[in-house]
Specification:
about 290 residues, ten-stranded mixed sheet, 10 strands, about 40% helix
Length: about 290
């Protein structure tokens, strides 16, 4: 389902950046593609000059040298963890959101840490993760929390809502589960209290949610016979339901856009709520990915 572009990782000198690097390495190895490391740096004073301060070219050069040094260390780590993996890097001056969005236009997947520390002019990737994941042209994996232990049956959790966009999210989830040899659980959050507007028809036509979900997964089970598949209907709103189900899991997969659906607007604003509260890494998949 994914274009064979590079796995792009946002890098700085924080601990969560190290976690993102390790995830990026595993993604690139699993997809047999290039790992691209990007460190975005900018002026310490990006706005109007205040109190007579004037930034010099020497200071910008120092910021760039620091970014390049950070990338060099990351490349060295990648070489140790994955010998033979093709790694490229780029130190880019600018603002994080537009730079990372530009990277997403040619990436297979974009991997970001969730809470970066601002040091020496480096960009706080955690502060832009929500904006990037909402507008990126490729799936974005945000290291919201550590992944669960596969030995403890940590799974890929996929949030679905009954729309065509759910197929895109399931495609990413099954591909990831297959490549990383993980079980998958498809989850549909359904709140019986929604009885107004478009929800009235949805409630009447969706009484047997478990049967519908099982039927929706039948084709995916055939396509990925190597993936152990589970499903579940959670009687709750999407954000609290998915967050509760994310405890100890390997990855939670949601979408970025959606319409009124059987379970709610899961493929829309819910992804942002999940990013703020999930207890495992989160993958946000644009509905146009195929």
């Amino acid at each position: 389902m994914l274009d064979m572009g590079p796995v792009v990782v946002g890098i700085d000198d924080s601990s969560s950046s190290d976690l993102a690097l390790r995830w990026g390495i595993e993604q690139a190895r699993a997809q047999a593609t290039t790992l691209r490391l990007v460190c975005v740096y900018r002026s310490v004073f990006p706005g109007p000059v205040e109190m007579g301060y004037e930034e010099t070219g020497i200071e910008l050069q120092e910021l760039r040298r620091h970014a390049e040094s950070t990338l060099w260390q990351a490349c060295e780590q990648a070489d140790v963890l994955a010998p033979g993996l093709v790694v490229e890097s780029a130190a880019v001056e600018g603002d994080a959101v537009p730079v990372l969005l530009s990277e997403s236009s040619h990436a297979m997947v974009l991997v970001l840490g969730s809470r970066q520390l601002k040091t020496f002019g480096s960009v706080v990737l955690g502060s832009v993760a929500a904006a990037v994941s909402a507008r990126a042209q490729c799936p974005v994996i945000v290291l919201r929390a550590p992944a669960g232990d596969p030995a403890e049956e940590a799974a890929v959790i996929v949030g679905v809502d009954g729309t065509e966009d759910s197929e895109t999210v399931l495609a990413f989830g099954f591909d990831h589960a297959s490549r990383h040899r993980l079980p998958l659980k498809a989850v549909l959050c359904w709140n019986d209290h929604f009885t107004f507007g478009p929800w009235q028809h949805a409630r009447r036509s969706f009484r047997n949610t478990e049967s519908w979900l099982s039927e929706a997964l039948a084709g995916w089970r055939e396509k990925y016979p190597d993936v152990e598949v589970h499903s579940g209907v959670i009687h709750d709103n999407p954000v609290p339901g998915l967050v509760a189900d994310s405890v100890g899991q390997s990855l939670l997969v949601v979408g970025t856009r959606g319409r009124h659906a059987l379970a709610g607007t899961l493929l829309g604003s819910v992804s942002q709520g999940v990013l703020h509260h999930a207890l495992c890494p989160v993958a946000v998949v644009p509905s146009h990915c195929e």
